[in-house]
Amino acid sequence: MSKAIYIAASHSNSGKSIVTLGLMRLLLGKTTKVGYLKPIITVAKNKKDFHIETIISHFDLDIDYQDAFVFTGKEVIAKRNQGKIGDVIDTIIKQYKKMESKYDFILVEGTDFEGDATSVEAELNVDIAKNLGIPVLIISKASKGSVDNTIENTKLIYDTFQNGDVEVLSVIVNKVSKENLNKTEKRLSGIVPKSVVTCAVPFSNKLSNPTVAEIVRELDAEVMFGASGLNNPISAYGVGAMQLRNHLEHYVEDYLVVTPGDRADIILGSLQANSSKNYPKVAGIVLTGGLKPEATILRLIDGLSDIVPILSVKTGTFETATNVANVQAQIYSENTDKILASLRIFNKYVPTEELTNKLIKFETKGMTPKMFQYNMVDRAQKHKKKVVLPEGNDPRVLEAAAMLATLNIVDVTLLGDLEELKLKAEKIGIAINFDKIKVINPAKSEYFEDFVNTFYELRKHKGVNIDMARDTMTDVSYFGTMMVHKGLVDGMVSGAVNTTQHTIRPALQFIKTKPNVSVVSSVFFMCMENRVSVFGDCAINPDPTAEQLAEIAISSADSAANFGIEPRVAMLSYSSGSSGKGAQVDKVRTATEIVKAKRPDLKIEGPIQYDAAVDPGVAKSKMPDSEVAGKATVLIFPDLNTGNNTYKAIQRETGALAIGPMLQGLNKPVNDLSRGCTVDDIFNTVIITAIQAQEL
């Protein structure tokens, strides 16, 4: 079964609670471990969100209230104003992943469209669902009297999620008038694909009308009498300012009376009307102005056998009446009548079996950059590895090491002189806790002579003598690589100062390649706006043969799978399918056939052009029967010239984050950096290296 579903409303007061309650009951019938998360709440942190309390309490969920939300609306607005909306998404992902490890399924509830975050939350709901990688169930609120307006508004919110690359599993239109129910259902099925589960739910007076208890909560009222009737529904209200005989003319069923606390005639008349067979039921009485009846009246009321709730508020009559008018119906944990009514409506009008089947069959189609980066950090932290950074004197390396040590992601070793590194860090203003970082000076290290002798034994057949070995081991790239070879660290990241060849040569000399691998290659993880793609080879092999290209494709597909990306391999060329001719396209065609023979389990297409590989529209016209075209996740370039220029063009023109290059094919992870790398590049490459080491 899919791990989660996101419930999103189109407007405030859409009746989201009905669906949340119904889905929770449905899910608990399928699995016992269901989590609940409402990322953004509209109340202040010192108050509790009633809906979270209702869900946790009614279903007796094993969830602490504080774990069921992440931000308040005010906090989100503050983050947005500071340009830190990305931090909001990152923190929500972290809390979601924490729940994901504990529960079989998570019900994620979107925002309420009330309070401080209203202006940004439509877009935010899309971003949250997309970055969590979960499908959405949309609840649209019916427009009064107009089916056309309802359908137009519903199509708008549906398109918003679809255009944001979020899969929509179901669309429910709520609060539909009974006369428009069938028409709305028919029109709704015509604006979305048949694969989307649709239904219309009728308006319910019982659920849409507030109760006296909600008046108590919202108006901070004192309950003087009739506490047992707080769940009485309110269908209408009126101010008792005129004489009793005129006031009684306005009574309807479940009527709430608002009157000054010194109007004993209205109070007693309302209580008498409630007991009379000739008048409708009174829901309750609200006494205004902080005034309370005299002792004799209170004694009279206390002696009555049938007392409706009588509340006292400090606000004046006009203000109180306005406040009552603004109270929205809610479902509280103690109101079991409303909860049970919600569940009955959900089961009656929502096609639960069809919806369950959609949840079971749903598969995430891709991974967003933020989710990819979170998964990387999370995996690295769970199984910490040791990574050496030979170029310790570079300011960027120092800053990245400080970040890694602070976050406790990997155990970092820097090569260099400790005192020199301390002075440099102080000079450039980098705060490093050297107690958390190991620093080794190669020439003065206790390992130096052992490394010299080991290198001599490994390379003496190549004419290396002991003096040459000693001189070589003073080179930080060789010393760092030997640390990997000896198992003192799990991987190495270099290249901020040294060339690619200077980084790779030592690895090829004594770490060597894996069995059945003849070529070391590289991939970049290209984190674009809506997806993460794997690009290979963009850094190592200038003009690979067909056999080498096939090997690069297989290695890249395995790397993608190792990092949680489903490999769908596109072997890129200047033509798609069988149309192109020439040596270059023939090479790609041959490489594709080799991969199919060696790894029939892989989804692969080639030769194929870049646009046909990633654009569903182009793929539909050029290669309509391909299971890779339009949705490729691993893109293999025919040569280094094409690959290197393409990744850099996409990086610069679109703002995509390029993580890498990550080297493939070595027995132990050694990764190269660009000499123009940033601190973030180093940080990300170290994390990739640590994850590679976990697989050995």
TrEMBL record:
SUPFAM superfamilies assigned to the protein according to its UniProt record, in alphabetical order: HprK N-terminal domain-like, Isocitrate/Isopropylmalate dehydrogenase-like, P-loop containing nucleoside triphosphate hydrolases
EC number: 2.3.1.8
Main location: cytoplasm
Keyword Ubl conjugation found: no
Record's comment describing the protein's domains: The N-terminal region seems to be important for proper quaternary structure. The C-terminal region contains the substrate-binding site.
Role played: Involved in acetate metabolism.
Quaternary structure annotation from Swiss-Prot or TrEMBL: Homohexamer.
Protein name: Phosphate acetyltransferase
